[in-house]
Design goal:
Keywords: Membrane, Transmembrane, Transmembrane helix. The protein is mainly alpha-helical. Helices cover about 75% and strands about 0% of the residues.
């Protein structure tokens, strides 16, 4: 009789082999597709990544600017909207 670990190893090997076959099939399909389509897809992915990075950077800058001018961060003697009692 085989142990649980043996069956677990067999399952892992089968999953790895199946993943490799699936990757080979995908690569085969990509090779059959025209190169132009692949280039267009790569360009679209790169543009989307750049746009996301720019949006994140701008959002981070806006957050920094907003928190730096927040009234609580302004020294008390520079605040104009306070009343003395």
């Amino acid at each position: 009789m085989y142990s649980y670990g043996h069956y677990k190893l067999k399952v892992i090997i089968l999953v790895v082999v199946a993943a490799a076959e699936a990757a080979a099939l995908v690569l085969e399909v990509i090779v059959k597709v025209e190169v132009v389509v692949v280039v267009v897809v790569v360009v679209v992915v790169v543009v989307v990544v750049v746009v996301v990075v720019v949006v994140v950077v701008v959002a981070a800058m806006l957050i920094v600017v907003y928190t730096s001018i927040h009234p609580l961060t302004i020294p008390f003697h520079q605040r104009t909207n306070f009343t003395r009692t």
